[in-house]
Amino acid sequence: MLNSLPGRFRRSLGQLFIVFLMVAFLFGSISTFLVIASRAGEVESTEENYSFVVFGDSRIPAYAPYDKTNKDKLDELIHAVTRYAYAGKEESPYKAVFNPHTLQLERIELPGEAEGQSRVITYGRDGWPDVFVDRQGDYAQVGLLAEGQEWVYDNVVREVKEGVSDGKDGPGFVLHTGDIVYFGFQGKGAEESPYWQDFNKRFLSRLPDGGPADLSARFFPVLGNHETWGDKNIVGFREMFPYLSQYGFSLDHRVYNFDYKNSRFIFLDSGIMDPDAPADWYKSTPSYEKQMEYLVTWLDEAVANNMDHAFLTLHYPVFSRSGFGPLPPEHNPHSLLKSYADEIDITVFTGHNHATEAYKVDGIRYFVAGGGGGEQGLSSNQMPENYPEDLYWRGGRQKLEYNYLVVEVEGEDLTVTVKRFRPNELKPYSQVNLVPDCMD
Q1: Are 57 and 196 part of one and the same domain?
Q2: Does residue 35 lie within any of the structural domains?
């Protein structure tokens, strides 16, 4: 058809076609540039924003799937428990109550360390404890409800699933401050231990697959003293979390670290528990001194790389008014950490004392995140007058509480929220902002 037109018309149409192509190319380039620029702006505004969950001390003790015909196995279990708890002191007899019809174990009564003290453990049908009641004379209080651990597990899984599916808001991974399982006397390996099996079934296997960005998983724990009790080679821990080896963790090197966005994450090993000094850093791998060398190196690297935050996780608390108390000065990393407070924002997560506490000391935030499911003592120790204030309870009486922390990072800013379940209150579910409202 074009060949039938006069030559000048053909030339004019050809020129118009070329102009059209040039305009289309230019417009497309500008549009593409605008889209790319817009997307780059979105990435820049969110690339350092993320969140994660922290909880700890979630293990429930004394799994006992025994009936009256297996009383010898129950005796072995109680012997192992009391030998550890009483630091080799002479054991007192315990009392077991079995259902007269089914012969299943219903209740155990264990004597306490002091006269007039006792603990009553009530069992469910599957061999796991349901309730702990601690008695002192005529006074009694509930120290454990199994539904507390269930609430933590279910809500952490829900939060991470929502965070992953949303892609922008919500936590993408979890830190654990140790004491995931009770001990290794009923099986060490991940497929052998009833404690590891239960943890995997009800929590770990329910987390979304993979990990955020360059991380290979969504769960990053430290060793607690209970992971090593009856399993000195940490068989169960290593089998359950084999991916930790790529960050430096091994049987002979129980520490590791990684970088995520604008933050460095550091995980230390505060060791097994010395029953005669249960708050002390004891027989860690590597030694306390060597780990402090690592800590200096890892913090120096974070500062040199212009990281905004350093998050340190270990089991034994640096500051605490509860339970076994804090690490002693000779094995306490605070003196080292405070020398970096002006160079990088530091937050420390610990556990061990089965309590929830918060401290701000020399510019560093310290959390005791021990409300993950285990039994709770619900009492504070008498501390020196100049001891740092617990910014969570603020001198008030502790209550039975199960909780987890949600940490939100927005560039240089940090938000920490406690989401909690207090079963003895009329409104049991609540949350409170600790950072910045109570601490910064």
Answers
A1: yes
A2: no
Q: In the 8-state DSSP scheme, what is residue 2?
A: G
Tens-digit pLDDT profile for residues 36-87: 333 333 333 357 799 999 999 999 999 999 999 999 999 999 998 887 766 5
Residues linked to residue 105 through DSSP beta bridges, in sequence order? 98
* Domain range enclosing 351: 50-61+146-435
Residues 87 and 180 grouped into a single domain:
no
Reading the block at residue 427, the tokens are 């409104």
How many helices (H) and strands (E) are present in the chain, helices listed first?
Answer: 8, 17
| CA atoms of 19 and 146, how far apart (whole Å) | 75
Taking only the tens place, the pLDDT of each residue in 116-174 is 889 999 999 799 999 999 998 889 999 999 999 999 999 999 999 999 997 777 899 99
Among 396, 269, 386, residue whose Cα is nearest residue 322: 396
Interstrand relation of 174-176 and 49-55 (parallel, antiparallel or unpaired)? parallel
Q: How many domains does the chain have?
A: 2
174-176, strands of its sheet edge to edge: 219-221, 174-176, 49-55, 402-410, 413-421, 429-435
Its pTM stands at: 0.88
